[in-house]
Amino acid sequence: MKKQNKLEALFPNGKVPDVKVFNRSLDKMSKEGRNRLLEKIYKIAFTVWSALPKKHQKFIREVIIHDRQSYVDFIQQRTVMSCLRCPLRYPILFIRMLHLTEIVERTAQTSVNHIAMSVLICFQICGKVGTLAGHLGKDEIAYEEALVLVGKMTIVEFCGY
Asked: Organism's domain of life (predicted)?
């Protein structure tokens, strides 16, 4: 019953609004009003995601994609992830390695914003999605940094299974 009430409040009569129109109306709202509505959407996604019809899941996914920063802020500030994010010893080097492994020579179209959002949710890196995406898109690893990594590794020969 709770699920039905939450869905009814967000999707009156079960109708999913056009996501582009919805996002434009969100952009016109006050910051407080927008944050309240987005928080309701995120909470529904977290509590009843697997029970949602595909059209509702698609709508929520597209709302999150439209404002990735708001979603990251919610995850970092209003969920258990605020205390579970992994600290990094070398965050700048980590970002450059991500650039090297996930951006360079990628044949599939990679959403740098999606990678940035995921990194900010999982790791204790300060910043905004757009800023991190900019770094991921252009930060190249210098050979000196690669040598730092090599110096921290021990290569062990392994034979067998």
From this structure: Bacteria
Category of 13 on φ-ψ map: left (φ > 0), alpha (ψ -120 to 50) or beta: left
Sequence-separated contacts (24+) of 82-89 with Cβ below 8 Å:
85/121, 85/122, 85/123, 85/124, 86/122, 86/123, 86/124, 87/123, 87/124, 88/123, 88/124, 88/125
DSSP state, 51? G
Return the SS3 of 160: coil
The pTM of this model reads 0.81
59 and 19 in contact (C-beta within 8 Å)?
Answer: yes
Q: Token pair 């009430």 is at which residue? A: 5
How do residues 93-113 score in pLDDT, each as one tens digit?
888 888 878 877 766 677 899
The mean pLDDT of 128-150, rounded to a whole number, is 79
Nearest Cα neighbor of 133 from 108, 105, 110, 149 is 110
pLDDT of 1 over the 60 cut: no
